Amino acid sequence: MIRVLIADDHAVVRQGLRHVLSASPDIVVAAEAADGFEVLEKIRKEAFDLVCLDLSMPNLSGIDLIKRIRLDCTTLPILVLSMHNEAQFAARALKAGAAGYLTKDSDPETLIGAIRKVASGRKFIDPTLVDELIFEKILTDERAPHEQLSDREFQIVRLIAQGESLNQIADKLSLSAKTISTYKARSMQKLGISNHTELVRYAIAHHWI
């Protein structure tokens, strides 16, 4: 029996996943978590065979959460189930330690197959992203500017583009506003962007918002 921890901040999504997985006799939803801190608390207290993880949750989330899970429970497989259908998000999640990446518009059969594969110790990448990831790997000299950003830089410029202030981001990431400002300046320099309007345009063009 595959014991799954579902981590998503939307109750309706967790309920939907529970319903889908209930049709599989070899999979059971053993617990749910609504934010990153709750995920860490659950994996410290209970044994799971897999975490089905949303990238965007309150408190600790995304790449930072994947890295924390890897530190706390090195062998626990992580399957990311995300709304982001861009190869750049999958690549960063896999590099951080996730074993699989699947988009939320996937059909139930694909989700169940992904859970079985990742829980067995193998890797899984959303079929719709495979070609893009392969070409992204091959064409390293033609990568978009944002692919040169560190995970933290990428996280911060996305939040800025989505309309969050430096103070809001600082509170969310438990960093100082000065540190966030430094990340912002460094990131915008790498992107070749000089103002907020250009950043928003760039974000829209690359489906960040």
Low-pLDDT segments: none
The global form is globular
Order of helices and strands: EHEHEHEHEHEHHHHH
Question: How many individual β-strands?
Answer: 6
The Rg value, from CA coordinates, equals: 18 Å
> Briefly, what CATH class of the largest domain?
Alpha Beta
What's the CATH architecture name of the largest domain? 3-Layer(aba) Sandwich
InterPro entries: CheY-like_superfamily, NreC/VraR/RcsB-like_REC, Sig_transdc_resp-reg_C-effctor, Sig_transdc_resp-reg_receiver, Tscrpt_reg_LuxR_C, WalR-like
GO molecular function: DNA binding
Modified residues (4-aspartylphosphate): 54
Pfam family, one: Response_reg
Explain what you see.
The chain is an alpha/beta fold and 209 residues long. The protein folds into 2 domains: 2-135, Rossmann fold (3-Layer(aba) Sandwich), CATH 3.40.50.2300; 144-205, Winged helix-like DNA-binding domain superfamily/Winged helix DNA-binding domain (Arc Repressor Mutant, subunit A), CATH 1.10.10. Helices cover 51% and strands 13% of the residues. It is built from 10 helices and 6 strands, in the order E-H-E-H-E-H-E-H-E-H-E-H-H-H-H-H. The chain has helices at 11-21, 36-45, 62-72, 87-96, 108-119, 130-138, 151-161, 166-173, 177-191, 196-205, and strands at residues 2-7, 27-33, 50-53, 78-82, 100-103, 124-125. A 6-stranded parallel β-sheet has the order 2-1-3-4-5-6, with helices on both faces. Helix 1 (11-21) links the parallel strand 1 (2-7) and strand 2. The chain is globular, with a radius of gyration of 18 Å. Keywords: DNA-binding, Phosphoprotein, Transcription, Transcription regulation. Residues 3-119 form the Response regulatory domain. It holds the Pfam family GerE. Residues 142-207 form the HTH luxR-type domain. GO terms for molecular function: DNA binding.
